[in-house]
Amino acid sequence: MDPKIAKFVTVEDCDSFGVNARARGAPHLADQARKRAIQIRADAHGATSDVERECLLAVYAYEEGLSARKGKRQPASRTWQMIKRHGIIPAVERIVTKREVSMGFTILAEMDLMDFAFEAVVLRHPQSFSPEAIAMSRTRLPDL
After folding, report:
1. Which residues of 101-120 are buried (b: 16+ CB within 10 A; e: fewer)?
2. Which of 49, 91, 101, 103 is deepest in the core (most CB within 10 A)?
């Protein structure tokens, strides 16, 4: 990540920089600013472990994708409801083990942000998830 972008501490700084970077023909810097904004949002959420932090990064990345599609800030309402109801790790487990690929997976694939997908988090932290979640994640992300 560009050192200047890594120093941003607010989402607004990232968003402003991203708009300007795209206007100046530097989409790679705009993408880095978007990733930094995702990190800032996740850090503010107060995760208690690395796996929880990565799950939150995935939710905020999904929200970025939804927002890009809609042209305005769009929360991942159903995902947040599930997290509130079950907790972050159990919610990710439920989403990953569904037969159907989630909308978040599809959106992150379209945006080339698969490192943020829940399935990628599961494969990076297999000790936190069931064998079923790991197997499903391997099926969806065979290259990881």
Report:
1. ebebbebbeebebbbbbbbb
2. 91
